Amino acid sequence: xxxxxxxxxxxxxxxxxxxxxxxxxxxxxxxxxxxxxxxxxxxxxxxxxxxxxxxxxxxxxxxxxxxxxxxxxxxxxxxxxxxxxxxxxxxxxxxxxxxxxxxxxxxxxxxxxxxxxxxxxxxxxxxxxxxxxxxxxxxxxxxxxxxxxxxxxxxxxxxxxxxxxxxxxxxxxxxxxxxxxxxxxxxxxxxxxxxxxxxxxxxxxxxxxxxxxxxxxxxxxxxxxxxxxxxxxxxxxxxxxxxxxxxxxxxxxxxxxxxxxxxxxxxxxxxxxxxxxxxxxxxxxxxxxxxxxxxxxxxxxxxxxxxxxxxxxxxxxxxxxxxxxxxxxxxxxxxxxxxxxxxxxxxxxxxxxxxxxxxxxxxxxxxxxxxxxxxxxxxxxxxxxxxxxxxxxxxxxxxxxxxxxxxxxxxxxxxxxxxxxxxxxxxxxxxxxxxxxxxxxxxxxxxxxxxxxxxxxxx
Length: 459
Ligand SMILES: Cc1ncc(COP(=O)(O)O)c(C=O)c1O
Ligand SMILES: Nc1ccccc1C(=O)C[C@H](N)C(=O)O
Fold this sequence. Notes:
Blueprint: H1 12-22, H2 30-38, E1 74-75, H3 86-101, H4 109-115, H5 117-128, E2 135-137, H6 141-152, E3 161-165, H7 170-182, E4 190-193, H8 206-216, E5 220-226, H9 238-247, E6 251-255, H10 267-270, E7 274-277, E8 292-295, H11 315-318, H12 341-354, H13 359-383, E9 387-388, E10 400-404, H14 411-416, E11 419-420, E12 422-424, E13 427-431, H15 439-458
This protein binds pyridoxal-5'-phosphate and (2S)-2-amino-4-(2-aminophenyl)-4-oxobutanoic acid (KYN).
């Protein structure tokens, strides 16, 4: 599942221990995070982002993150929104200036962005392991999912079910149910993948999924899963599941919201039928920014039902304004409207950063950062008897660490310490953006969690 782990059989724990031994300290010693931050090949990347700051002297003098010179926020909510690239404002500003100066879209620099949205697909495709013409930059995740379900959910009397995770992000369930109802089937025709029995009540197991596909596949039209499960950070084995889906004649799609920018993905080689993502999570393109969609090139000339608009017409003749459609083959034929140039400017700013590194390098950094977090937090969660639901095997987890905090009201305490992470029910989810989180920040967030849990236990 992990394609390019440069450390052979060593776990992140072993690597970190080995590095700490080299400078004769323990992993939990502050000298270790200093050493790691000073010797980090990707440390330069964070300079391309604006560090969130707020007014400093708001009290809490006793807490050491408030020392002069320290960054204020401890940002671990990359699964909702990531830092702003410095270039975003510049590029959006250029666009706004251009718009102010020129009254007609075709005379502005904006037009260059709008008319070349194909160029953006060329830059994004390597993040999902696709060919350029298998990727379209368009809409937002749920909209793309709804568009693609029109094509990829084609139920028949004998083959009409959809397999999906029980703990899927709700939008996926809503979208699937709406399609099932519209085609006259029953929303209960969703086959829900349950967490592994005897496991921690949340994690899935590849073997279980393959068994469900074996059992239900003949009556199943579509399998729709996450690439990375949003609650646990678990990576699903997209290659194995896709193979099993196809063996049963099912279409398969993935929600990559928490996967893009975090893990290595090879949609083309794995033969995935379609995938959708948004761009405001790990890849920092800004709140509500346009996302993207993938459709395998084998479906390029499909005659599936689909929704069509003028931006799907071939670019060369789109502006002939003929009423005779000449559709762009592949996923780019699914584009309906002219893209949002403001979104494009933000995407451009973020992609400039991704061009300075590789997804393999980011994944390696993310594994080590998460390994460090795990090393530090293990004793803390053990003391409080909290259940970790992120896979213990580093190859099976993306860039998030989750544990359950039943009956512990620690979210407001953490927020008041400017720790940003996400809470869902009793899940506490700490997401680490490998593009800018430093080892020091991880050290500090664990200190905060320790402090807050101690208060909660005593209170
Ligand atoms: C796993 C997952 N899928 C889908 C979405 C919805 O994305 P959008 O708001 O772009 O439709 C989110 C987050 O908002 C998500 O975390
Ligand atoms: N778009 C948002 C707007 C507001 C608050 C959260 C979100 C999220 O994206 C939640 C996230 N996707 C999650 O994994 O819970």
